[in-house]
Amino acid sequence: MKRIIALLTLVAMFAGCDRPATESEPVANDQEPAAAVDAELSIYAAAVASATRPEADRASDAGRKPEAVLEFLGIQPGDVVLEMWAGGGYYTELLSKVVGESGKVVVHANTPILNFAGEAHTMRHADNRLPNAEVLLAENNELALEADSFDAATIILNYHDLYWSSEEYGWDVIDVPAFLAELYKGIKPGGTLGIVDHQAVSGSPAETGNTLHRIDSAIVIAELEGVGFVLEGESNVLANPEDDHTKGVFDPEIRGKTDRYVLRFRKPE
Fold it and tell me: Residue 176: its pLDDT value, please?
């Protein structure tokens, strides 16, 4: 049973619980700028509406509400964005369209992610179809970022994995303070950090990231403020008051419908 749960955890990590494209759903080799879809749409709505997105991604939109999430995070054309643990690339695709030709998405992956999301990751980046996306391979505890190099960064449905470990799947225990310090260093003064994750019972320990794959938002806020970030805003766009926070996120009753928080932090000027 533990093996099954661990496998499911990794699969969900890679694409933030989205379904990857498959060979029967070829991904268009065309990076269509978000603004080119419809001049009347916001850059975020245009990115979501883009005809070049794979159908597997679209199937996840209703539950993930990417337009609202992206608008709240405020990422802009021309931004250089770090996407941590990008997985199968659901948000890679959208971020690529939002930042456009003048921007860049640095897509982080490690060996466990590539092992399990391999086909989805490969197809997402095949034939240079996202020319403004650059893959950064860095194992746990080996992330090294150039100082003040990113306008924004995202950790979507993976912050709790700072407290997950699996010898079987090669997911090493992460040095959380060192990771957060490196992330802070890499974001420019005035830059933003967006977090989306599954809410845990208020007051529960960080170890719920290892058991239920949830983490109390209060822990996230305290840790990020502790390294210097300032909490700028919270959104309830993905909230679900019916979610039982004592259940693991892969429980059939709640999978895909968890109570999720969306946080926006800023690195002071």
Answer: 98
